Amino acid sequence: MKPAMSKVKRIEGVLSPVVTPFNRDYAPDAPRFVRHCRWLLKSGCAGLAVFGTNSEANSMSVGEKRKLLEALVAGGVPASALMPGTGHCAISDSIEMTRAAVELGCAGVLMLPPFYYKNVSDEGLYRNFAEVIERVGDERLQLYLYHIPPVSQVAISLALIEKLLSKYPGIVAGVKDSSGNWDNTKAMLDQFAKAGFDVFAGSEEFLLANMRGGGKGCITATGNVNPGAIDKVYRSWRSPDADALQAGITATRRILQKHPMIPALKATVAHFGNDPQWKTCRPPLVELTSAQEETLIRELKAAGFSMPGLAS
Amino acid sequence: MKPAMSKVKRIEGVLSPVVTPFNRDYAPDAPRFVRHCRWLLKSGCAGLAVFGTNSEANSMSVGEKRKLLEALVAGGVPASALMPGTGHCAISDSIEMTRAAVELGCAGVLMLPPFYYKNVSDEGLYRNFAEVIERVGDERLQLYLYHIPPVSQVAISLALIEKLLSKYPGIVAGVKDSSGNWDNTKAMLDQFAKAGFDVFAGSEEFLLANMRGGGKGCITATGNVNPGAIDKVYRSWRSPDADALQAGITATRRILQKHPMIPALKATVAHFGNDPQWKTCRPPLVELTSAQEETLIRELKAAGFSMPGLAS
Questions:
Q1: Cys-Cys crosslink for A292: which of A48, A288, B62, B67, Cβ 3.0 to 4.6 Å?
Q2: How many CB atoms lie within 10 A of CB A18?
Q3: In the predicted model, is pLDDT for residue B1 greater than 70?
C-alpha cells in the first residue's frame, strides 16, 4: 500500500448528502452542483457526502460521478471536505470510484454494501469491503461504512464492523447509520467509538443524542437545505439550550418528511434559490406534484424557514 | 428511430441466465464463458439470457459486461440467440448496455427496473423504460421486462406493462416473471399474450403451466446445468407424458434449491465439467461449503443427473 503520510484530517460535524441537479434531458449539471456545494460549505456544512442516497447517486454511472467530482475540485471545493459515496453493487465499480476519490485527495469515502443480492452473508460483505481496500491499496483511504437497510436492504452488522476494523484500523474510519434505529447507533458508539471509529447519525433527529454518546456529527438529507441550524446544534451540543435547538431542527425535518424526501429537497432548493430547474429528478424518482410543493413551501415559510444567500 | 427492417426473430423455448466464470482475482473469464455458452446452445437452450441475476450481472461493471458480450459474438455465439440483461439502477448504464446489445444484433434485452430506490411509482418506472427506449432509438430493440421482486424489491405491475405495451408495441416484447407467483404469471398471460407479448416463466417449475397458458418458454437458473431435460418439457408440452417430464425437472431443481442457487450452479458446472475454477463467486456471494457441495453432488448423482459433453 502507498504510505499514509498525506492522510487528510477526518471530517467532523454536519455533512450533506448533496442533491444532484439535472438538466431537462437528465444530464448532470456540473455548474449548478458546484454552486450548491459552495453554498453548503459557507452555510454550516463541515463536509459534503456527495453521491449519497439523496444525491440519486445510484441513478448515475461511475463515469458521470467521476466527472462531477472532478468538476467540484476544479471549481474550488476542497477535496478535504469531500466524502463521496463510492459503494456500488458491482465491486469493480466500487474499486474504480473509491480509487478516483482517494487520488483526488478526498477526506473519505462513504461506502454502501453491494445491494442487489439480498440475504448475503457477513463473509461475503467482508470480502467485498476487503477487496476494495486491497485493490485501492492506498493508506490515504478513510472508509466510512454506510448502513441504510431501509433502502439498501443489506445491513452492516456490528460483527462485520468489528472484523473490518480489526483488519484495517485507520482505514475503516467510521459509519453513517441510517437505520433510523437509535439503539443500533448507540450500540455502534458503545462498541467502537473508543477505537477511533467515527459514528455519524444518518438524520439530524439523532444529532444531539449521537454527540452525547461520543459520535462525530450527522450526515443528513436536510443538511441540503437547513445546514446552518443543524450545525448550530452540532456546535452547541454541550450548551443548556441544546435540546431546544434540537427540537427546532427536528420540526423542520418533519415538514420535509411529509413528502418523498429527494423531490422535496429539490423543490425547496428550487424555490428558495429561485431556480426551477432544480426540481428535475432522474427516473425512477419523480418531482413533487404542484399540490405537494405548495404545501411544503407554505409550511416551511410558516415555520420561518429560509436559505440565506442561496438565490443569486 | 432507426428502421426495424433487420429485427431479429424472437427467441422461444428455454433460456439460461448464464453463470459467469471468474478467475481467482475475480476478473471475468471470457474463454470459459464462451465455452459454457456454446455448450448450452448445443444442449437444449434456445437462447442465452446472459447477465441475469444468476450471472452475477449486477456484480459486474458495464465495461466488463460489454467485453464479455463482444467476446461471445467473436467466439461464434450467434447474437440472434442472445438476450442480455441490460437493466441497471443507473439509467445511463441501462442506456449504454442496451444500445451495445442492439448494435451487436442481439435478439432482445432483459431489463430489470432500477432497483436501488424502493417504493417508487409506476410513473417513475415508466419514465425509466421509456427514456431507455427513446435514447437507444432503434426499432430493432426487443425489450423484455424482468419482474423479480424477491431480489430487486421493485415490481413491474400489470398496469406498467399495459402502459409500456400500448406506447411501444413491437419494442416491448415480453416479460420474465420471477415472482414465484403463478397467479401473477397467469394474469400476464391472460392480459397480454394475445397482444404479442411473450411471457417466460422465471423457473422451469412453471414451464408446463406457462406453455398451456400461451407462454413462450422459461428463463431459468437451472437451465445452466439441466438444459436438455427442460427443453424436452418445452418441446413435449402437448404430449401425454408432459406432466411426468415436468415432475422430473422439478425434482432436479429441488435438489439444487436446497443451497444458495448461484454457488450451487457453479459447483455443479465445476464438478461435472471437471473444472474447479468455476466455483469462484464475486463478493458478496460466496462459494458453497465443502459439506454443501458434497451433499449437492451426491444427491444429483443419486438422481441420475449428468451434463453430457461438458467435460472437455
A1: A288
A2: 27
A3: no
- Structural domains of chain B, count: 1
End-to-end CA distance of chain B: 45
CB contact under 8 A, B90 and A128: no
- State the cell numbers at B134: 427513446
- CATH code of B231's domain: 3.20.20.70
Per-residue pLDDT tens over the stretch B148-185: 999 999 999 999 999 999 999 999 999 999 999 999 99
Name the minimum distance, in Å, from the CA of B117 to any CA of chain A: 6
Beta-strand runs (E) in B56-100? none
Q: Which three cell numbers stand for residue A2?
A: 502507498
- For residue A286, give the nearest of B63, B124, B286 by CB distance: B124
**Is B99 inside a domain boundary?**
yes
Which residue of B22, B56, B59, B281 is the best one to mutate when testing the A interface, meaning the one whose CB has the most A CBs within 10 A?
B59
Question: Assign residue A6 a region: left if phi > 0, alpha if psi is -120 to 50, beta otherwise?
Answer: alpha
- In what helix (H) or strand (E) does residue B295 lie, and over which residues does it extend? helix B290-302
Whether residue B130 is contained in a domain is answered as yes
Across the interface, whether the CB atoms of B283 and A96 are under 8 A apart is answered: no
Contact indicator for B200, B175 with CB cutoff of 8 Å: yes
Residue B62 in domain: yes
**How many CB pairs (< 8 A) connect A and B?**
114
Nearest alpha carbon to residue B31 among B68, B64, B63, B60: B68
Asked whether B12 and B72 are in contact (CB, 8 A), the reply is no
Smallest CA–CA distance, residue A62 to chain B, in Å, is 9
A63, A89, A286: residue with CB nearest B123: A286
What pLDDT is recorded for position A301?
A: 98
- Read off the pLDDT of residues B269-292 as tens digits, 9 standing for 90 and up: 999 999 999 999 999 999 999 999
pLDDT tens profile B217-238: 999 999 999 999 999 999 999 9
- Section A237-254 average pLDDT: 98
Q: Is residue B253 part of a domain?
A: no
| Chain A neighbors of B283, CB-CB under 8 A | 91, 114, 124-125, 127-128, 131
Report chain A residues whose CB lies below 8 A from the CB of B280.
Answer: none
* Domain boundaries, position B100: 13-240
Q: pTM for this one?
A: 0.97
Give chain B's contact residues with A (Cβ, < 8 Å): 26, 53, 58-64, 89-93, 96, 113-118, 120-121, 123-125, 127-128, 131, 150-154, 282-286
Alpha helices in chain A, H assignment, sequence order: 30-42, 62-74, 91-103, 122-136, 149-152, 158-167, 182-192, 207-212, 227-235, 242-257, 261-272, 290-302
Q: List B219's β-bridge partners, or say none.
A: B15
C-alpha grid cell, residue B188: 400476464
The C-alpha atoms of residue A242 and residue A240 are separated, in whole angstroms, by 6
